[in-house]
Amino acid sequence: MIETLTIIIAIAFIITGIFIHPILIKKRRRHYKQLPFPILWNAVIENNLPIYYCLSKGDRQRLQGHIQVFLAEKQFIGCNGLLVTEEMKITIAAVACLLLLNERGEYFLRLRTIFIYPRTYFVNEIAKTGSYIVEEKRVARLGESWTNDQLVLSWEQVQYDTRNWQDGRNIVLHEFAHQLDQEDGEAEGVPILPRKLDYPIWMQVMTAAYQQLCHDVQRGRKTVIDSYGTTNPAEFFAVATETFFEKPHQLQKQHSALYKLLQSYYQLDPVQWV
Ligand SMILES: [Zn+2]
Hints:
Radius of gyration: 21 Å
Bound molecules: zinc ion
Number of strands: 6
Order of helices and strands: HHHEHEEEEEHHHHHH
């Protein structure tokens, strides 16, 4: 009798987890999206994010809704004595949520905490330099994204990048693109795609564009996508995302298939914004 009861309770928990929990999350998010967007928050975005002026009224409203959800669900922690301000949280949320603007998916599924350093920070990196030789180096960082539930940013760099939109570099777009890539637990330049048949097309277009970039960089040619994208396919996806949002015209002109692929993935057309 007790065994049967235990099984029934376990099944009830599973059913709640599978069916009820997502409904509750959706309901909670709908509630956050409907909250009035504070005037002060809007002023911060207008001041720090020039691209905001290029968005349509509908896009702005959708972005504001996403920011409300993002701020309710993610935790921010200051590092090296940094006191996290509303301005920091709103600016980071606004840029990150551009990636999700057209209801593109989850709110960075794995991410829970964003650590913010005041400026460039340093970490100890262990590198294998030979079969038995391991070297420890002190390395400067502007940001990083982890597969567990964390992301790190330098506030100084966030400010510089958001105010210098159109230079093709943006640490927030870069690290949050890594988060999208890492949602399946792997950082390999392939995020979760809507349909199975999307994967071969993704691989084909991304591989061709990645090889093209490697080829051009090797020959010393000027490229619209930053040469850091040659590091590996995961970095290529993050750097291509930065270019897609910040230099859409040039990317569309020089890598039309890649632009089309990212347009379809993000369900956005940044060419229309500029
Ligand atoms: Zn990266």
